Structure formats: structure tokens, C-alpha cells
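Bench log. Compound arrived from synthesis this morning; before running ITC I wanted a structural hypothesis for how magnesium ion sits in the protein. Inputs:
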Amino acid sequence: MPRDCTLVLLTLNEIDGLRLLWDALPLDDFARTIAVDGGSTDGSREFMAARGVPILDQPIPGRGVAFRVAAEATDTERLVFFSPDGNEDPADIVRLDDLLLSGAHLAIASRFAVGSENEEQDALRPRARVNQALTWLANRIFNEGPPVTDTINGFRALRRADLLALDTSVKRFPIEYQISIRSMRRRWNIAELATREGQRAGGESKALSWPVGKDHLKVLLSELPGARVLR
Ligand SMILES: Nc1nc2c(ncn2[C@@H]2O[C@H](COP(=O)(O)OP(=O)(O)O)[C@@H](O)[C@H]2O)c(=O)[nH]1
Ligand SMILES: [Mg+2]
């Protein structure tokens, strides 16, 4: 019996990663696999369509929009979000769903837990530091449970009804941060597994460091009780 779970592929020009990772995806374990595509023009759509994967379009670009398109379009109990760009390890897909089955509301593949590896090679690791500072702030302000080590990684799983209940609003990259913060505020059980973040297979990152960092801070402020919505 396949899992009552949809594997959601999030793509925006990831043909190299798709080619590299396709055979490692545990498609048979899942009731469905779908893609939400942000407007690829590099053959990603054709590659997935040729393999029978339904492709959902988004009304406007952005990962946040893609998360909501997936939640609204699926009919399984649970969703695992996977980005086939080479950063995420397909071996963790099933493990994330297992964390939900063991009672987690939100399951995150952490790049900063004991035993994790982060892809950044630069000695100063600026992206990792900003990530960890944002996670520290979220824990400090919103979390009354055990500390979460990676509030930002997009490689995660949750129940469809829970994702809809979070009523998210972020359009672009900080969607994961908003999901993590809102889960903390609800005192949900957040479980993590240690992951090894791989190198990008090809193409380009769409997350530019400074604007994306600033957008995360805006989300943090807008989640404060009583905050006026900033976006
Ligand atoms: N569906 C969809 N996917 C996106 C969008 N923007 C980025 N992605 C995908 O999200 C994943 C992570 O994006 P990436 O640019 O690698 O961010 P980084 O890993 O933080 O550098 C990749 O698989 C992208 O193709 C979007 O607007 N819509
Ligand atoms: Mg990436």
C-alpha cells in the first residue's frame, strides 16, 4: 500500500537536478507525485510530463504560492515537499513522512542538527550564519518546546489539513520560516532529522542572499503578536 502522502516537487528550471535525481526518488512509495512549477523554460516541465507527473502552474511565481497550490490541489492526508536541485537528499523523503506517522505535526530535514551537513563551502559560511541567526530568533521569540535547529529549510513534510490551517500568506522564499513560526506558536510537535545538504546540480539559485534575508526578517516581525501585516 502506498503512503497516504503526496510527493510535491517544486521546480523552477531544475532540469539538471531532475536528470540526476530522478531514479533516486521513491515514487512508488507515495500515493501521488505532483510538480508545482514556477514557469520553467529549460525542459523541466517536459521531463516530468514525459514521466507522467501532473504539473500544476502557479498564478504568480514564488515558493510560498507553490506551497498553497499544492495544499489546495491534493487529496492525500500528508505532503512531502522536495526540491530537485541537488541540495536535498532523496533518501530523506520517506524519513520525513515517517516522522509525521510517528506523531509530528511538522517534519524538517535540518542542515544544522548534530550529524547534519550544510552545502556552503565558503570558510565564513555567510548564508549558514544568517540562517542560524534567524532560527535562534524564532526559537527565542516563539518556541516553548524543544529548540528547532533549522526553521528555514524547504525540505519538510506536514499534513495537508495542518498546512491549510496555518493560513500562510508569504509569496516567496520565507514561506518555510512562516510555517515554522506558526507551528511554534501553536505548540505543535516539530520533529527534525539530520540531513546532508548536497551541491546544486546545475542551473542557478533563485534565492539572492540579502533580499531574501530581509524578507525573512519581515516575516519574523509580522508574526509577532499584535503586529500589523507588513506585506
Ligand atoms: N514551484 C516553484 N519552485 C521554485 C520557485 N522558486 C524556486 N523554486 C524551487 O525551489 C527550490 C529551491 O530554490 P533555490 O533557488 O535552490 O533556493 P536555495 O536552495 O535557497 O538557493 C528549487 O528546486 C527551485 O527550483 C517558484 O517560484 N516556484
Ligand atoms: Mg537550492
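What the model suggests: Residues 10-12, 14, 36-38, 61-63, 66, 83-85, 87, 205-207 surround guanosine-5'-diphosphate (ligand 1) (CB under 6 Å). Residues 126-142 form the longest helix (17 residues).
ITC booked for Thursday regardless.
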